[in-house]
Amino acid sequence: MERPPNLAAAVEAAAEALIGVLDSATSRHNVSVSPTQLRVLSLIVSHPGTNVNRLAELLDVVPSSASRLCDRLEAVGLLRRVADPRDRREVRLVPTVAAETLLRELQERRHRAVQAVLDRMPNRVQHELLLALLAFGQAATTTTVPQPGSDATARTA
User: pTM for this structure?
Assistant: First the structure.
């Protein structure tokens, strides 16, 4: 089966539309933290036991920048620094109940916004989209995309 000529462009456009729907749902929530701070909270929730150095790695920033982000989140009551019970020299980043509530409410709002868009699509197309997204996710996690000019695109004899 031949690839449609604008498939990659269509996927990019759909991703942009999805980002717009998600951003709109977030902005209507009157969130008092920045998108970067929300990302930090999400990373901390999804990586329990994270310390500032690990957070810096996940964000691809220097530890001092990650620490300043944590300072701001701690100041507004969304993050706590807690000594690791196994090694008191190690400090773990722990989201507060307020942070978990904020993330849960945002996730629910974003889910409803995406569902509203899906509800405007025929059931058959929703099912096809589901299958395509599952296949895309699987392909994205099992292969790497060769970069032009890299050794991965060159053939050897």
Answer: 0.74
